[in-house]
């Protein structure tokens, strides 16, 4: 039987750095305790109040087919939230409810790319980006953001490859680096998109996790609302990762076309989950801040542990739930370090190479365990790196 080339090519061959993750899960299955600092999964469950609302919505009859674009109540809440946080006038018809941010990535690239079209994205990148582009028949093209520049992308580098592209995907606050794109960076990106007639897809799922500076949605910049598609999600802001509930905000016509796609793919999102999301958003910004608070605290913990030494350098984490660590003085790749560290200390971290070559020689540490366990793991990592660096210097 033949399998489509498109699906065969979603995940290309070669190492992608996820061997560490798979090995950690294998160890856990064998009964070996592993501290997992790999996946961006909260160490708390979804709030019981949200789960009660989900249960009640099911009892109230929200169990049948729903509007493919999403329940009006939820689209109104999302539109209000986006308008309040960005200052951009937004109405419910500019909102598409999708089963999680990943579905938003799929919908927006289906909207913007035909078969063979080039779609740009910034490296380091969230791991599904290139595969999502390939899954719609697009050709992924990465633009490297460099550690020496604090992983801020250079708009001039984007402009060099933009003339034949259809879209640009960005992510701020950024996974994996924790960097928030500056106003200068965002304005430069917006100018390239206007000059080259690009769609801008802005993945903003970490918009509630801002520690330093200000998150700027490019949709708020001049003449950008008509060409920007914003992806949001309840996963990170409300600890609802398993509920699979998110949205895309964009021009009404574009949202309508993506609604047509939903008709032929997801057939909408379960109503009881949408009503739980309505309840969660009604809990307000104070609740969102409470969900985010542990990651701000743990970011500070990382900086405290690493203070006063120069073997492991933390990329200044301005947002998101990760710390990006530069371990190049050890003489090891991120993959080598992460795998050896896992075997030696049963602590799993993600190699930078999992997120593209630009993050080589780095590690991404998810701040997703209790503070005391995180501190022990970080001190083990620092000791391991110091020993390896001394060995490399001999």
Automatic annotation (TrEMBL):
Q: What CDD domains does the database record attribute to this sequence?
A: AAT_like (cd00609)
Task: Name what cofactor the protein needs.
Answer: pyridoxal 5'-phosphate
The answer to whether UniProt assigns keyword Phosphoprotein to this entry is: no
User: Which keywords are on file for this protein?
Assistant: Aminotransferase, Pyridoxal phosphate, Transferase
EC numbers, comma separated: 2.6.1.-
Q: Where is the Aminotransferase class I/classII large domain positioned along the sequence?
A: 34-380
Chemical reaction(s) catalysed: L-aspartate + 2-oxoglutarate = oxaloacetate + L-glutamate
MF terms from GO for this chain are: transaminase activity
What InterPro entries does its record include?
Aminotransferase_I/II_large, AspAT/PAT-like, NHTrfase_class1_PyrdxlP-BS, PyrdxlP-dep_Trfase, PyrdxlP-dep_Trfase_major
- One family from Pfam that matches here is Aminotran_1_2
UniProt family annotation: Belongs to the class-I pyridoxal-phosphate-dependent aminotransferase family.
Name of the molecule in the record: Aminotransferase
What does the organism's lineage look like at the top?
Bacteria, Pseudomonadati, Pseudomonadota, Alphaproteobacteria, Rhodobacterales
